[in-house]
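Sample 3 of the quickstart, ligand flavin-adenine dinucleotide:
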Amino acid sequence: MSTQVQALVVGAGISGLATAYALQKANVSTLVVEAAARPGGVIRSVQRDGYLLECGPQSFSGNSAITAICSDLGLLEERVLADPKAPRFVLIHGALQAVPMNPLGLLASPLLGGGTKRAILRDLLGKSEAPEPDESVADFIRRKFSERLLDWLVGPFVSGIYAGDPEKLSLRAAFPILHEAEKASGSLLRGIFPAIKARAAKRPKGPKGPRGRPTLQTFSEGNEMLIKALALNLGERLQCGVEVTGIEHLDSGHDANAPRFRAAVRTPQGEEAVEAERLVLAVPTGVAGKLLGALDGEFEKQLGDVEYAGVAVVSLGYRKKDVNHSLEGFGFLVPRSSRLNDLGTVWNSSLFPGRAPEGEALLTSFVGGATNPGALQQSEAVLAETIHKEIMPLLGIRQEPVFSNVTIWPRALPQYNLGHTARLAALEELRGKFPGLYFAGNYLNGPAIGTCVEQALNIADEIRVSFAN
Ligand SMILES: Cc1cc2nc3c(=O)[nH]c(=O)nc-3n(C[C@H](O)[C@H](O)[C@H](O)COP(=O)(O)OP(=O)(O)OC[C@H]3O[C@@H](n4cnc5c(N)ncnc54)[C@H](O)[C@@H]3O)c2cc1C
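Result:
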């Protein structure tokens, strides 16, 4: 059997769902197919034993794209916002130290040693040049500031976003604004505010906390509420348990409205085909590369070379009376020099209501990442035990957890490693050979949910315009 649609979206993670949602809203006949039995990809919320936990992302930063979708779907009332003043901690010499959230506080903080402060002054008064063709985040921080800044603050921050290795991550791919700031003004600090302003001017504004920072948020029933609302809205235009196994490029001649792609799909009923005028691949790079191999072998090479970091998400519940710490704040990050398996721990029940039963606290830690891939070889039980033992002394925990849940993502996050910018440029050039082909996903503009949604809306708009012309 063969189905024909204007747009076929492959993959129903947040990138694919948001693209399909915007396409159908623009009256483009759309089908989104998802290989798994449920939509959402790595976004998964679980309610069990009175706990509400997240198996993947714990929360997200609001932006105007997400707010617009929430508003459309009647989800605004269900959003819960974290206190933007909630302190964040970093583990230094075995103790949790608050990280000042404003530049002056940070400058005055003992977290920055004399060497880093002198380097900051040098950056402010001097002129430096970014090396070509690419530079790792670690080399950038060492060149401009200090090893201590890299270990204590930048490394943990990088693992908090990418679960990445700063020695491998490309500065210009992972943190383009820092690269642009130095390039434009010869100084990170002189250039950063104009660079932020220039970007902000280009982007529509999202919801802001009292101090003007994007506010961390989720929903009353977890992140998956957004997925469920999008799926409900798409109705039969979303088909789960349907895996795309191959893609063929069709010769549509001069007919702009003839199908340009045929996707072979495996459904519970058997093999089928879907023909589409526009094709959006919202799947991880390895899958996209394999699917496009028949169009041009270079796709497989460029996409297949993107490395992923695996992450285990370990959620532990404790009785508050067994924890000798206020748990007031966002949680803490862990420098690699501490040699712990824990990359960082979020204090979920302090940030959002309804995450744990009365009198109990939910804490979620991350293990593995690009700097400790071997950790994921351990069983779920060992991972939970390891984290419990590591956070016990840090938070004055006296008893075993009363709740535990471990989710292992072998390919959790794409790594924006050295060469990533050049790879994306090559990919864009290849894509140009196949009009009607689009990529969506967390390896393009950044891994944050808000960025994926923003990008999805842009792609849908590009497609809408392509039909109008
Ligand atoms: C542990 C973890 C913590 C995170 N923390 C945060 C956070 O705190 N804040 C934040 O903003 N972001 C966070 N992120 C990042 C963010 O969640 C992801 O970048 C984003 O959700 C990715 O969405 P996606 O749709 O691009 O990809 P995915 O969610 O990977 O979706 C891709 C989909 O494609 C489907 N698929 C694959 N092959 C096929 C096929 N052949 N046919 C059909 N379908 C197919 C898959 O089953 C999957 O559903 C985190 C991610 C992880 C893993």
